[in-house]
Design brief:
heterodimer; A: 95 residues; mainly beta; OB fold (Dihydrolipoamide Acetyltransferase, E2P); five-stranded mixed barrel; B: 93 residues; five-stranded mixed beta barrel; 6 strands; elongated
Amino acid sequence: MLIARVIGNVVATQKNQRYEGARVMLCRQITPEGDDMDYTCLALDSVSAGEGDIVIIAREGWSASTAATGRPGAAIDSAIVGVIDYVDLLPNEKK
Amino acid sequence: MQIARVIGTVVSTVKNAALDGRKLLIVQTLDADLKDKGRPMIALDSVGAGVGELVFWCRGKEASFPFKRDETPTDCTIVGIIDSNAHVFNSEK
């Protein structure tokens, strides 16, 4: 799973039917310290995350599909499965 | 899932039987600013996408789920067509 910040979303009218009713969120991976990284991806929302939220993204199909649609077997490879309140790091791990 | 632009089509006569009748497209993956990211690759289409359209694709085993899941050999499938460039809402812009 990775830490990311929700930076927006996309609108698609024509999509796989299992995506109906779900929100496709645009996310940017961040470090545990909160710094932006280069990697961006789309993830289905399963926890009503909003723009600006720091979230947990599961990047495994079974989990993502079950979390986002309630059933496995959808063509979904990543889903937001939690909103992070804060990250605690050991002092010597902070950069 | 990643945003991508369909930039071409692939014609293949001899292929796995499960791919018969399926559309193979060349996609260029884009980042959140809709700038090119990495090299183009081939994606299987499941939603009727065409050249020039903005789409998003799914990687891995899940890519075969829109089709006969145990038979279709794909690791990259287009699962949605984004309505337009303006329908990518990015707060960083």
